Amino acid sequence: MNRMKVDEEEYWHSSKFKAFTFDDEDDELSQLKESKRAVNSLRDIVDDDDDDLEKFSWSGEPVGSISWSIKETASSSSGAFEGRDSGLQKGSSAYTTFPKPVSSYSLSSFFKGRHVAFSSTALSETGVKSYAPELRRPKAEYKDYNSDWSPKDTVRRMQKGKICSLERFRSLQDKLLLLDEAVAVHDGNVITAILIFMKRTLKKAILFRELEVRQVALRHLIHFLKEIGEQKLLLDLLRFLDRMEEAALTQYREHLSIQDADKRKEFLKGCVGLPFSSEDAVHVQDHYTLLERQIIIEANDRHLESAGQTEIFRKYPRKASILNMPLVTTLFYSCFYHYTEAEGMFSSPANLKKTFKIPDKQYVLTALAARAKLRAWHDVDALFTTKNWLGYTKKKAPIGFHRVVEILQRNSAPVQVLQEYVRLVEDVDTKLNLATKYKCHDVVVDTYRDLKDRQQLMVYRCKVERGSPEEDKIDGILSSSQIRWKN
């Protein structure tokens, strides 16, 4: 009986299995200690020059912060075995999974030998809180992603800028509740974010149907689609809502992204038949016709300029292409380079005026600016000269001669030309102001003479140069006995 007992004891002593002890050097805790020592020893081998990374303690707080200092102080004053006892109570064996704290290492720390400062109690005194570096976020942070927030709570958190997962709102009812809650709080950013989620997860027909009865959200989606340039979905939405004119205008705006003139012309040709309003339809037709004319004029003038046989192109080389320019710019170009052409030519100013029904005021202003820039004063004169049915000529300006004078002066017209048109200004005060401003002395003297204002004439005499023809003229008028002065 004693031999059997001895054999049994020898069997247990000779077994390759060992009982669990806290002092066993081969347990999992010892292995983790060795791992920590190996990681910390890397800093002696690798050059630690990456100071721009922030250091964190094992508790997850930045090293050196106020909260870190407080926790370190509290940790130092606690008992050495308190942490171990509390940690072991949570598991039933040595293989129990311990809570995973925030790691004090980043990935770059492992490869560059980075390390963090530890308290004096280190691994042996902190118990289960300091086992191995953990790269994942603390579980508290996953609450924002995984918690079962209601639509109201989700919207409130989105208002505060917190990240919330919308993927769990899978049913149409939940998504609509979420959208309605966002509309109720009047937060445009949240509304747009939820609409982006719904656009991605719902079919177009369902999304359009639900937004049709939610006008606030609908306006947000239309504005968002316009901002990001998602034209196809926007056109589908407008057609679903039977807003055909707005859909036509949206499609028409796409021409702005077409750079090639020929391709833009073909696109505009396709837009002519869209359901525009009557006024917009005229503008679209004119746009297509104008671009078609510009392409023809540009090709012809480029050839003439390269040939070098046309005087005006040699004297005034073109500075830019006429393609895709507005109607007024095209008219100015035509008045500058093709003013004398017959009405049957596409580049003729008269042809442009007739084709696009340009008003007389706009045509005269543009033609005056173009011919004055060329200092073609005879063309300026012909522009305002009309004949009545008796054959008498008369100057007439639909824009007012005071504006004619201003345009001529900006183009450095001679005093003789300015004086001719200053005299045609009907308002006396305006005429005197313009004549004085631009030094049209004859006009000022004649106007004061017609007004029989001797006093103002004498004042003006002091403003002209001594011995000048203007002074002699004033002296002759003042000495005349045929004028009955008012003062």
UniProtKB/TrEMBL annotation:
Database matches in InterPro entries: Spe-39, Vps16_C_sf
Name the record gives this protein: Spermatogenesis-defective protein 39 homolog
Gene3D superfamilies, sorted: Vps16, C-terminal region
Presence of keyword DNA repair: no
Keyword Transmembrane annotated: no
Cellular location(s): Cytoplasmic vesicle; Early endosome; Late endosome
Record field: transmembrane: none
GO cellular component: early endosome; Golgi apparatus; late endosome; recycling endosome; vesicle tethering complex
Organism phylogeny: Eukaryota, Metazoa, Chordata, Craniata, Vertebrata
Superkingdom to which the source organism belongs: Eukaryota
Keywords: Cytoplasmic vesicle, Endosome
Any GO BP: post-translational protein modification
GO terms assigned for molecular function: protein-containing complex binding
